[in-house]
Amino acid sequence: MTLVATQAPAREAMSVEKKARFLQVGLLVFGLAFWEMAMRTGLMAYLVPNPGFWFSSPSAIATLIWKLAVNGQLWNHVWLTFSATLIGLGLGAVIGILLGVLMAQSTRLETLFDPIWSALNALPKVALAPAFAASFGIGIASKSALAVAIVVFVFLFNTTAGLRAINPTLICNLKLMGASRLQILRMAMLPSLVRWLYGALRISLGLALTAVVVGEFVAARGGIGFIIQYGFGMFNVTWCYAGIVLLGIIALATDAAMRIGEYYLTRWERS
Amino acid sequence: MSTTTLASITPARKRGMPASVKIAFERTLIVLAILLVWQVCVWTGIASAQKVSSPILVAGRLVEIFGSGMIWPHLFDTLGATLIALALSAVIGTALGIIISANRLVEATLEPLFVAIQGIPRVAFGPMIVLFLGVGMTAKVFLAVSIAAFVFMGNTQQGLKKVDPGVMRNLRLMGASRRQIMKMAIIPSLAPWLWSALDLSLGLAMIGVIIAEFISSTRGLGHLISAASLGFDTTGVITLLIVMMIASIAFRSILIRLRRRVFPWF
């Protein structure tokens, strides 16, 4: 009896997970099929005039993406957005970490500059997008710069928090053994930072992508934000939907890559 | 006796200012120094006022836009949209969080969907939203809600998971009604989570509103910034950024003050 009682909930939980998987696939297929059928049969036309203009259709979106992929434009757009995001992320990370390490060198420095960082962080940085477009041009530089402006603060705050979280005894011991500033940085601070920096990286990835897309909305000659804005400007929503789908694929793929990376990086903690 | 102690204390106090005053003083000095370097660069011609503006120009513009009152309708438009979006997000997000948490199957089914939606930068939907809802308040609020509501939803789910099961059991054992359990266990445990959601989504909602204003609008701070940069009016851009910064800091400090009033225990 006890065996049954303990096993039953486990089996039920399993089946809930499984049921959820089935429901997910079912909902997705049903949703897409319903969308397509509603557009094909003209069912939507009873609800709104000219539904194709508003809702496009899954087949139209897929066809457009396929067409762009075949004529090679797609890779150009994806690459523009992706490279701008990576450049912004990389530069922002380097600047943010350097600033964070600098601030951690003395409490005086930290208290002095703290309100300046908070004030700058309070600024909605996407508001800089048109200004950056005006001063850095409509190329990749203005998008990367916007990403940097956002990402820097995530890394700055995470670096200072990570450095503060270091066990002070460790630093005392190192000092006692006559370690230099550089040695303390290398032996105590950097290893402890890794986890915090990884957290910062995961947060900033989405933020950098958002920044680049906003930059492309404001002024661009290419990129996924440009595809969406182009569809908006031409009143052709298929382009908008295609851009959203592409962006979703990029976001989910990079997030999955980060998760896998985290799994391997933190393996030593679990074993 | 007392005079001697006083005498021995006062000089020590006089020698240095109180630490907090000193820090504030030094911080002000740093800000002034930065402004001075900026201004001197412009005066000496190292940087042209056309490109980087100058503190004096910005101060003049600040006085101008507030003096003439032209900024107020735009400021109220943006802040109003942000506040409405926050309120709607709180209601919709919390309700969604409660509904999803109520059923294990619903939660397991919809969780990946919400993760996927949150993974896509929501600003991507901006142009679509403007196309559907037109240029104006509705589109701004909708975009902001599409960003901020998820914060409330996620935090509500977390908060409901963190309700102490021991307290729940004891309450049930003592024959508490549904409403009593709600009042005594669930709401107190949820409150800090909702508050942190409010704190997080404040900035996000404002960003959503401003992006919607970039995409297409006739009013609001985002519209003004967009117009100023199209005209290469650096002074205007910087002035508006400062207005935004002050608005967002003021918003946040009001929130923190409110929290101390409403929830003095955290």
UniProtKB/TrEMBL annotation, chain A:
Keywords: Cell membrane, Membrane, Transmembrane, Transmembrane helix, Transport
Subcellular location: Cell membrane
Membrane topology: Multi-pass membrane protein
Superkingdom classification of source: Bacteria
Signal sequence region: none
UniProt xrefs under PANTHER family: ABC TRANSPORTER PERMEASE PROTEIN HI_0355-RELATED, ALKANE SULFONATE ABC TRANSPORTER-RELATED, MEMBRANE SUBUNIT
Name of the protein in its database record: NitT/TauT family transport system permease protein
Automatic annotation (TrEMBL), chain B:
Record has DNA damage as a keyword: no
Any single biological process term in GO: transmembrane transport
Cell compartment(s), UniProt: Cell membrane
Protein's UniProt keywords contain Transmembrane helix: yes
Membrane topology qualifier: Multi-pass membrane protein
Pfam families referenced in this protein's UniProt entry, alphabetically: BPD_transp_1
Keywords: Cell membrane, Membrane, Transmembrane, Transmembrane helix, Transport
TM stretches of this protein: 24-46, 52-72, 79-103, 123-152, 190-212, 224-251
Domain ABC transmembrane type-1: 75-255
A single cellular component GO annotation: plasma membrane
Family: Belongs to the binding-protein-dependent transport system permease family.
Name the UniProt record assigns to this protein: NitT/TauT family transport system permease protein
Source species of the chain: Neorhizobium alkalisoli
